[in-house]
Amino acid sequence: MRRRDLLKLVPAGAAVGIGGVLAGQDAAPVKNGREGAASLRGLPPLKITDVKTILTSPDRIRLVVVKVLTSEPGLYGLGCATFTQRALAVHTAVEKYLKPFLIGRNPDEIEDIWQSSYVSSYWRNGPVLFNAMSGIDMALWDIKGKRAGMPVYQLLGGKCRFAAALYAHTSGRDVHEVEDRVRAAMEKGYKHVRVQLGIPGMATYGARVEREPSKDTAIIGPTNPGAIWEPGRYLRDVPKLFDHLRAKIGDDVELLHDVHERVSPSEGVKLCKDLEQFRPFFIEDPLPPEQNDHFKLIRQQCATPIAMGELFNTQQEYVPLITNRLIDFIRIHISQIGGLSMARKVANLAEFFGVKTAWHGPGDVSPVGHAAGLALELATHNFGIHEGGVFPDHTREVFPGCPETKNGFLYANESPGLGIDLDETLAAKFPYPEGPTFDHSWGTTRRRDGTVIRP
Ligand code: GCO
Ligand code: MG
């Protein structure tokens, strides 16, 4: 309906009010429509006045959190920008590039800020730039929720469930140790448990291996390999682990496993086939993202549910896997694709293709990132499972308002916005650990002959 026609329908005294609605503000005279667009009806116009990047490591994991401050005294938002292996690069991307681009902008314009930040570097994508954008993006959702007086899950459509089911992490040196830990997790109320098995003498992902500290001071490289991993025994032992757990514990628990992209495509296919009979909840990253085209081979050969995605960055990587129905759970690290705005689109796309969400949620997603993921999970019909969500003591103190874990579920705390805060004074007491500015455990695991392997 055109504005002139609308005016005919209302009494003369109300006409100014309708003009205000059309222009997006109360009772102010409309000149060219642009003035009104600058503010939300009933809420004062806002500006971004400052952007801060907080680097903190309360429980030894390097976290990156972005704080967006506004022209309303005391109103700010927080976002997770954690790319723990390259934290200082994200810090630079926020401070030197996004901050000057965004100061003065209207924080209500979340989608436009995302889209314009995305092209502001001309060359785009990548974990550094997307994590930096995520810090801003989540913070803007936090601000909008605080302005509306609502938790972010309300802005996303409201609750589809009271809380998000969690999966617990377990590992052990042998099948018996894993069994004990699965039972302990079940006693705490978990119905979903990830199981990882150590292989003697091998640096297997997800399982602690006790090794003699090396006295060798030579630089690790192909001619002097340090941590060794070979796929053979791993591929034989993981089905034995599942067999053992089903035999001893039964069916009343969902079992998950992370291959962590370590095996070759045909080994990945074989492992998924071997595990099918034990009804896993999902098998994660059976292939590296570079081998995305091999997922159709897994699909053709078994019905094992597949989870994939923590390393994905651009839509070219994940859209085909979703739309070709080649995976069951999309496991993106939300800050790695630019934050909540993009994750919401991925979740909605996935719904149409029968794919559920299982966002990446280890300790190198900050509690702010977990709160953002949880907001989306509460409001998304096609939610699958939430990883982790157990915050160690120092982390809880630095981030008051962490989501609460009870009986294997993660609960939002119901405060407006993301519902979580950051105690900056306390955060400063946990500076990044001394030593190398990145984690040397990546890029150093090798085959026996010295060949470096995927993580
Ligand atoms: C998981 C992951 C993590 C990653 C880690 C990398 O599924 O939880 O694979 O443990 O290895 O986040 O920094
Ligand atoms: Mg993983």
Task: Describe, in short, the structure shown.
This protein has 455 residues and is α/β, with parallel strands linked by helices. Helices cover 37% and strands 13% of the residues. It contains 16 helices and 13 strands.
What gross morphology would you assign? globular
Radius of gyration using CA atoms only: 24 Å
The amount of beta strand, in percent, is 5-15%
CATH architecture of the domain at 155-415: Alpha-Beta Barrel
Uncertain segments are 1-30, 32-39
* Cofactors and ligands: D-gluconic acid, magnesium ion
Structural class: alpha/beta
Order of helices and strands: HHHEEEHHHHEHEHEHEHEHEHEHEHEEH
Q: What is the share of helical residues?
A: 25-40%
Instruction: Give the end-to-end Cα distance, rounded to a whole number of Å.
Output: 58 Å
Provide a count of the helices: 16
List the SSEs and their pairings.
Layout: H1 3-8, H2 15-23, H3 34-37, E1 48-56, E2 63-70, E3 76-80, H4 87-102, H5 110-119, H6 127-148, H7 152-155, E4 164-172, H8 175-187, E5 192-197, H9 231-249, E6 254-258, H10 265-276, E7 282-284, H11 295-301, E8 306-308, H12 315-323, E9 329-330, H13 340-352, E10 356-357, H14 367-379, E11 386-387, H15 393-398, E12 404-406, E13 409-411, H16 424-428
Parallel strand pairs: 4-5, 4-11, 5-6, 6-7, 7-8, 8-9, 9-10
Antiparallel strand pairs: 1-2, 2-3, 4-13, 12-13
Helix pairs in contact: 4-6, 5-6, 8-9, 9-10, 10-11
Bound molecules: D-gluconic acid (GCO) and magnesium ion.
D-gluconic acid binds next to loops.
Folded structure, characterized:
This protein has 455 residues and is α/β, with parallel strands linked by helices. Among the domains are: 3-30, no CATH class; 155-415, TIM Barrel (Alpha-Beta Barrel), CATH 3.20.20.120. Helix content is 37%, strand content 13%. It contains 16 helices and 13 strands. The strands form two sheets. Strands 4, 5, 6, 7, 8, 9, 10, 11, 12 and 13 form a ten-stranded mixed β-sheet that branches. Strands 1-2-3 form a three-stranded antiparallel β-sheet. Helix 8 (175-187) links the parallel strand 4 (164-172) and strand 5. The chain is globular and about 65 Å long. The N and C termini lie far apart (58 Å). Residues 1-30 and 32-39 have low confidence and may be disordered. The protein binds D-gluconic acid and magnesium ion (MG). Magnesium ion binds at residues 258, 260, 284-285, 310. The site of magnesium ion (MG) has 5 residues, from loops.
